[in-house]
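--- STAGE predict ---
source: upstream dedup step, 1 unique chain passed
mode: sequence only
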Amino acid sequence: MAGNPVTLEPIEGWGYSEAIDGSLAPQFRIAMTGTGVEFGDGVIGWTGAAIDGKYSGANVKVTPRHTEWDGIVVVKVEEAGTGRLLFYGMAESHGLEPSWKLLT
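--- STAGE serialize ---
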């Protein structure tokens, strides 16, 4: 999928899980590989790969946090190859817009 990388900035939100050092990562960019991806139970989002920062090279799954788009997303970062969970939590997104109708 072509286009500019998307920037994610992890936030505290309702809490998070982080396996590398337990701390929120600074913002990082992802190259999108899929949009409108069905994750099950009506949850649609994006897939990509981190191209810089703490999670460089890791696989990333992103879904909208709210039914009205506000740029806040739920992020799951998994180590490439092993699938080991590196981060699960919320982030502010920059450069990301859903191309499908959100459920209301």
